[in-house]
């Protein structure tokens, strides 16, 4: 395997072999049998390629050139996006990136490691070619080693700063979809969730929040949602941050959970990790604040929207039905039509949650009626365009409570 590449399914293949498979008309991943549809991108597996090259050098084995899938016989090989130019400035940038990656080695002074990671974070944010340079230079593996504690600097006073820059560097590398798949293949999930683990007490509140944001970015690729969700530390770590993190950390944890819970299996995992209790406590404690600041997923404020998603699974509804005291809070948010701080999406989520938990449950239906949910939902439906989704959900709740 001279040139390992990754399909979006997360499986690694030799470039020439998988290209022949695709060129012959196959439209599935050979191992998982998943349909590839129109997404047949071949993403370089830099970590595995580096291991293969190191082994070959140590054993005096000459590797055949992968050539990026280009034909041989004197034809020009395709070049990566960062090598398309032989300009001295491009070579200088590559050499600078390689020097920064070498600067992360554990034997170096902590201040050099800190400065190198910080510069890589900045470079990763600036452009796609620079992100590719960092990946090709083996930067991802070095950053992951830092987060997993394999490359501890000699001065622990700088550890928080180093970890924060390393997490944000990985987050910046996630700007490209192919990197989202490649990072997971290299083990980024283990490293990032290590920051959120119960045993990693040293991580700063900002580093934990950035780790949650990195999980959100990785989860934008569907196959990664499943991989992250299956990790034993994912849901507990995010729920812990949602429960006891800083305001920013709670928001970023809610965003990450919302993204992961687009996958039904992850909803059940989140419920098992105790997320429903944390969400309902937030709603009960301050319904107006929750609606104004934690309800719109487009703005990264996803608490009520997350409740809405979790109410679609039986396990989520069962947990919600244990907390009858949350009904008045949901009704208050749903009725906040005159409060400009409460977005319509928040009111819609409350109507959807109430509808879900009242269905086929006479006790909750009676509690919702006593809390005035039918009247509030009726006013909401009448005050909105009847064709909008929020109005339809409110009208459905009125119909349910009036039966």
Tell me about this structure.
The protein is mainly alpha-helical and 403 residues long. The chain has a domain at 4-66: 2-Layer Sandwich (Herpes Virus-1). Helices cover 63% and strands 2% of the residues. It has 23 helices and 3 strands. The protein has helices at residues 15-23, 46-58, 88-102, 110-126, 128-136, 139-147, 159-173, 177-186, 188-196, 205-218, 222-230, 234-244, 247-260, 264-272, 275-285, 287-293, 303-310, 314-320, 326-334, 344-358, 362-370, 373-383, 389-402; strands at 4-6, 12-14, 43-44. The protein has a 3-stranded antiparallel beta sheet with strand order 2-1-3. Strand 1 (4-6) and strand 2 (12-14) form a beta hairpin. Helix 6 packs parallel to helix 9 and helix 9 packs antiparallel against helix 10. The termini are far apart. It is an enzyme of class 2 (transferase).
List the helices and strands and how they pair.
Blueprint: E1 4-6, E2 12-14, H1 15-23, E3 43-44, H2 46-58, H3 88-102, H4 110-126, H5 128-136, H6 139-147, H7 159-173, H8 177-186, H9 188-196, H10 205-218, H11 222-230, H12 234-244, H13 247-260, H14 264-272, H15 275-285, H16 287-293, H17 303-310, H18 314-320, H19 326-334, H20 344-358, H21 362-370, H22 373-383, H23 389-402
Antiparallel strand pairs: 1-2, 1-3
Brief write-up:
The chain is an all-alpha fold.
Please, what is the CATH homologous superfamily of the domain at 4-66?
Answer: Zinc/RING finger domain, C3HC4 (zinc finger)
CATH architecture of the domain at 4-66: 2-Layer Sandwich
The overall average pLDDT, rounded, is 83
Our count of helices gives 23
Biggest β-sheet, characterized? 3 strands, antiparallel
Strand content: under 5%
| Fraction of residues in helix | 55-70%
Radius of gyration: 25 Å
Estimated structural class: mainly alpha
Question: CATH topology of the domain at 4-66, which one?
Answer: Herpes Virus-1
Alpha-carbon distance between the termini?
Answer: 66 Å
CATH class of the domain at 4-66: Alpha Beta
User: Widest sheet: strand order?
Assistant: 2-1-3
> Uncertain runs with pLDDT below 50, 5 residues or more?
66-85, 294-301
